[in-house]
Amino acid sequence: MAPGGMTAKASGSGATNSETGPMGDGQHLDVHHVVAGLLVDAAKVLLCHRSAHRRWYPNIWDLPGGHIEKNELPAAALVRELHEELGIRIPEPTDSAFAHLRRPDFDCHIWIVREWRGTPHLASEEHDDLGWWYPNETGHLPLAVEDYRPLLERAVSKVER
What is the mean pLDDT of the chain? Predict the structure, then answer.
């Protein structure tokens, strides 16, 4: 996972902006602009386990997604990232993101994904495992961002209506 729970591409090709540190100390933070897909099927959500060799957030569970490339719209980035990471094709979202998480070092748009073509599988070395989980079964999992936990339940509730 990337800082704050967003998946980061190993190539570091994601768009970043330098900003002054939150304490006004003159340090610069790279703000990583990322997207994530919250895949929901049969009241379960898909989580990806980040490989232990990852520089950012190794050996934890995350949502699939990644950096927005220069001049790329967030919805298009989601389509590209889910294909790269999971080998699936999704329609480009036309609605606004389900959630938007911001931290000093990242800005993440998260969409609920209910429809895709193909079977999600490990399509890159970024992850070493995938799992479908009921939200109430994730309490023992180390997540990249704790703020994911309530989003998992909200996403399933929204889809099940």
Answer: 84
